Amino acid sequence: MIAALLAGAFALAVMAASQTTPQSATTPVKQTAAQSTAPPQSATAPPSQTQFVPRGGLTTVVLDPAHGGVDLGARGTEGIRESEVVLVFAAEVRKTLEAQGFQVVMTREGNDNPSFDDRSARANAQHGAVFVTLHIASTGVAGTVRVYVVPDIPPSGDATGLIPWDRAQGPFVGLSHKLGDFVQAELTKRFRGSPDTALVAPVRQLRTTAAPAIAVEISSVTVPERADLDHMVSGVAEAIAHGIVAFKPSYVLPVPSGTPGVAQP
Amino acid sequence: MSPQSRVWLAGGLLAAVLAAALYFPALRHQVRNAAQLTEKTAEQARRELLPVMPAASSEPKVKVKMFWGSGNDDGLLRAVTVELPLSDDPVLRAKEVLNTLLAGPVDSEARTLPPDAALLAFYILPDGTAIADFSEALGTSIPSGIQSEQLAIDSIARTLEANVPQVQRIKILIHGQEVETLAGHIDLTQTFRVNTKVPGAPIPPAPSAVSAITAPIEKAVKKVENAVKR
What is the ipTM of this complex? Predict the structure, then answer.
């Protein structure tokens, strides 16, 4: 198991290296929030970070309709089941993103329930991707939508540059905040009463995802009628697509120090 | 069969019918009671087996800040001040406030934790990490969702922060085990920061009864020594 996770981490590092297009050998190091808490490096160690844009830039969105299979998720009145409703939202988001020229990868399209790690693995195998997990809440003011990003994840301090699987989101937290704020702003334009900026919560699904990653939660399964949620589908899809388009120029990824094949400044 | 035997037989049958008529209602009552017992959930049984918290009624009542929901379904917390008899011992103090949090506010809409959840164990490690072990109902009865699960964690953390300064972070277990999520969303494999004001500060020892008595005496002795020196 540990060997498999290490192999996965190594694959992540090598994958990043093979896609690298260093912007400049002298590009100043831009630290993400997570890196700002890193312990001081030794005098002989290279600077901790450089940045790169994956070949082709941001091209792919991995969409994750949450729950599925025996896991029905939140259940509300009128027999509304989160695991079914998120598939309807995901289909519309996919259509809208494809119309904007993005490639869309789904973690599930039917009533199956991949594990958290399987869903993250779909995203971690892509180049130039962001990850969006879709949820319907049990609570919250009906007709509002919130975006969540994870809090800072301290780096593991591994000098080899390998990213442990359970901290895969660490280097991307800053970018995830940026993506979250763009998408939340678009949602709040369409759904009054939603927050102005993305909220922070340790969502399990996001922690193992090595890409800018957000969770979108729609309120709620307790609406009086299923039609109340169906009316939100196109607005949510547009907001997510517009938010990702607005984020696209910010898609500049950090490269872990010690990554094989990556030129260090 | 002789007429005398028939009379005896009829008498015996009549007595049996009368005995059955008297016994069956009592039997039915017993069966109903037994059925009700088996209907009790494992959670209820576990709660009954829990050691009764030592009554802190002898302690003076102090004002305690509890963090329940706002009651507006907006995912926000509201501080409510209540009076509780609290111990100086941080573990007993934490148990008392968490049990009060579980009992819930007067307004059930503002509840953040499921009513059938129970605190099974609580202790504090020397580095200020508290371990709170809750019954399975914490995960199975809470409304599923990022907002509702985060609200539950925040209400626990903020209530401890306000009332038990010795706790710096908290690890939540379910029935003695580490679980991946609370109810499918919020990550429970990590610890949650409680006291954000003093990160990394050493944990002050709990005031003991002995030090409370000896401290004023030591202070008085020092005063006398200083006066003699002068």
Answer: 0.80
